[in-house]
Amino acid sequence: MNVLFLCTGNSxxxxxxxxxxxxxxxxxxxxxxxxxxxxxxxxxRALALLAQKGIPTEGYFSKSWDHLPVTPDVVVTVCxxxxxxxxxxxxxxxxxxxxxxxxxxxxxxxxxxxxxxxEQAYAILRARIEAFLALPLDxxxxxxxxxxxxxxxxxQLAG
Length: 159
Prior knowledge:
By secondary structure, this protein is α/β, with parallel strands linked by helices. The chain has a single domain (2-154), classed as Rossmann fold (3-Layer(aba) Sandwich), CATH 3.40.50. 38% of the residues lie in helices and 13% in strands. The chain has five helices and four strands, in the order βαβαββααα. The protein has helices at 13-24, 44-52, 111-134, 137-140, 144-154, and strands at residues 2-7, 30-35, 74-77, 95-98. A four-stranded parallel beta sheet has the order 2-1-3-4, with helices on one face. Helix 1 (13-24) links the parallel strand 1 and strand 2. Helix 1 crosses helix 3.
């Protein structure tokens, strides 16, 4: 099953989500990320954070949802629409959920404050991905209504 983590720029939160999911996922589950308006480059702080956590990022790049190698089964938007950021709406017959997370790359402050924002975004995303992967995935793959309800519930979890 393919899970798409989607955000506008595909440089930070969706990248973190893709890398963490693929690092933790069981065989047969795969994540990718994309953006509706990709920046074309990955956020250096996000890459450094993932490296610090021992999560590989080789082969990842900022890409458009127009150039996906596979059709996703599940789409998770990670933009923080409550913060005034508009999440793109993926069009297609997929299971959709929203896991809004504030963009740490927009934080202005000291090195420590910016680092704390990246750690917080990582912690929230990792906790949600771990909750996703703890679900009875084979069972839920057969029950889209229940699967969506579980994914929506996970989107409310803090890190």
